[in-house]
Structures are given as C-alpha cells and as structure tokens.
Design brief:
One of its GO terms (molecular function) is L-lactate dehydrogenase (NAD+) activity. Pathway: Fermentation; pyruvate fermentation to lactate; (S)-lactate from pyruvate: step 1/1. Homotetramer. Its EC number is 1.1.1.27. This protein has 317 residues and is of the alpha/beta class. The protein has two domains: 139 residues, Rossmann fold (3-Layer(aba) Sandwich), CATH 3.40.50.720; 166 residues, L-2-Hydroxyisocaproate Dehydrogenase, Chain A, domain 2 (Alpha-Beta Complex). Helices cover 41% and strands 18% of the residues. It is built from nine helices and 14 strands. The strands form four sheets. A six-stranded parallel sheet has the order 3-2-1-4-5-6, sandwiched between helices. Strands 7-10-11 form a three-stranded antiparallel sheet, with helices on one face. The chain has a three-stranded antiparallel sheet with strand order 12-13-14.
C-alpha cells in the first residue's frame, strides 16, 4: 500500500518560517507544505513565489493562508510566529508578548491538527516550548523545541574550520539553554572517532587548547548577534536545522538531536525545558542520552537550567 502523503504546517511567514518552507521544498520533506500567517498579503506572496519553482524540486504542493484551517491534519507543525519588537521594548517584554501570542494561536491549531508533532522555533525557544507544553496539555514527546540543534551545528562548523576537516566528521554538542548560558560538551566531542581533547593537529594546524576552545565557545554564543548586526535576522541555518528535525520525525529516524524538552529523569532538570541529545522519531522527542560530562560541564548545565528556571518564574510558568 502507498504511504499516506505527509504534511508540514509552518506558523509564521517571516524570515525563519519562509526559510523552513523553502528548505523543506528543496529537500522533499513532505508532500504538502502549508504556510500560515495573519498577514494575508505576505503569506499569499510567499506561497506564490515558491510555487513558481515547484518544477525544480521533488514533487510537492505548497499552500498558505491566514486561517488555521490551512494547517488541518498536519503531521508536523513548526511554530515560528513571534511578537515584533517595538521601540524601547526590552527582551523580557518581547518574550512576554511572544508567550502571549503562542497562547492565542496554539488552541486553534490544536483543533485542526491534534495529532501533529509540534516543534517550537520561536525565541526564547526554551521558554516558549515550556509555555506551549503548559498551554496545550500535550505530552512532552509531542511538543519540543529546536533547542541547540543550530548551536551544535555552529560549534561543529567552527571545530571543522579550525582543524581542517569536513564538518560531517565532527561530533559535538551544545547543551542547556539556546542562549548565553549554553554549554559545549568538549569532553565527549570527537573528530572521526578521535576524542577532540586528544586531537593532534594536522600539518600547519594548531592544537585545540583551552584558549582556542574558549574562543570557539564565545563565537558560537555570539554568532546570532553578529549575523543580526549585518543582515537583520538569522534565517538560513535555522531553516535548515528545523527542516532536519522535521525529517527526523517524518522518516522515523531515531536520530540523536539536541532538542529542547523537559528532561524528566535527570536530577535537577525535570522542571525546565533545555537541550540534551535526544532520540527524535515519528513519535517526537523520545529518550534523552546520558552523555558523559566533566564536573565543569555538569555544573554549567545546572547553572543554565537555573537561568531558565528563573525566566520561567518571571513569566508565571
């Protein structure tokens, strides 16, 4: 029997939402891509623009509109909608407005796509994910955030660049908050099976000492700020990262990705959303891997959790 056609719905037709839609089309992620936004003219134009390129991508349809009905029966819903920052508005105020928007939009989408896996991408993603879990009442596996999938990709790129190897041969994770308190797991990082801390430089290369690791960590933490300063938003890499998470769900890959979930079973982490390497499959976010950590890394993860816990309390979550 032919498999049932798959559908991905994306909430928000801004820079990130359209990047996810575009990369999903190119990679042939689903048979139908649905884009929803309250700005009717914008979402209509984005759908039309991408429709004109359907000849050049794997067979798919792209639809869009300003009503939640466009998301009906979606297998995966990717949430990118967020409040726009107003002049003089603080980051905390912006986060509060985004949480309010999430609370307003989610119920309608749940009505038309109750069985979908919900992937939250809107920042601050860990807080928004925790709020979505509270508002929706869905189980932890069905609602999770993009977390540090992008941050880990940035770290792997920087390590690959520094060591002169292909990024696909680098395995390293960022855990904790998707933000300033995130933690790189140097102790479990590797290149082609060689532990990163034992890596011998290639000819003309430099050793990966504590100073170079600290520099790479700083570059990853501040990467988004640098991109936003130059072009106003980060969209391409997060578009690819979110699309990769969607693929892992729809293809039932059981792929290990550092997505943001409530880490039940981890002492000190069972009441906060943060990122840990997690099995992602058709049922959503599954088991978390107990990755070995140094004492310093573990302390950093606990500190990151406390940072997020305090933010949750500020928003009454």
């Amino acid at each position: 029997m032919e498999a049932r056609p798959t559908k991905v719905a994306i909430i928000g037709a801004g820079a990130v939402g359209t990047a996810i839609a575009y990369s999903s089309l190119i990679r042939g992620v689903a048979r139908t891509i649905a884009l929803m936004d309250i700005n009717t003219a914008k979402v209509t134009a984005e759908v039309l623009d991408m429709s004109h390129g359907l000849e050049f991508v794997p067979r798919a349809d792209i639809i869009g509109g300003d009503d939640v009905s466009v998301c009906a029966d979606a297998d995966v819903v990717v949430f990118t909608a967020g409040a726009k920052q107003k002049p003089g508005q603080s980051r905390l105020e912006l986060a509060e407005a985004t949480i309010g928007l999430t609370k307003k939009i989610l119920p309608g989408v749940l009505e038309v796509a109750p069985n979908a896996i919900y992937i939250m991408v809107t920042n601050p993603v860990d807080i928004v994910t925790y709020a979505a879990l509270k508002f929706s009442g869905l189980p932890n596996n069905q609602v999770f955030g993009s977390g540090t999938v992008l941050d880990s990709s940035r770290l792997r790129f920087r390590i690959a660049q520094y060591c002169g190897v292909a990024v696909q041969n680098v395995h390293a994770y960022i855990v904790g908050e998707h933000g300033d308190s995130e933690i790189p797991l140097w102790s479990s990082a590797s290149i082609g099976g060689v532990p990163l801390l034992d890596w011998n430089p290639l000819p003309d290369g430099e050793p990966i000492d504590s100073a170079s690791r600290a520099k790479m960590h700083d570059e990853v933490v501040h990467a988004a700020y640098k991109i936003i300063e130059g072009k106003g938003a980060t969209n391409y890499a997060i578009g690819l990262a979110a699309t990769r998470i969607v693929e892992a769900v729809l293809n039932d890959e059981h792929r290990v990705l550092p997505v943001s979930t409530v880490a039940k079973g981890y002492e000190g982490l069972d009441d906060v959303c943060l990122s840990l390497p997690t099995l992602v499959s058709r049922s959503g976010a599954g088991s978390r891997l107990h990755v070995p950590m140094s004492e310093e890394e573990h302390a950093g993860l606990m500190s990151s959790a406390e940072t997020l816990r305090k933010m949750q309390e500020q928003f009454g979550l």
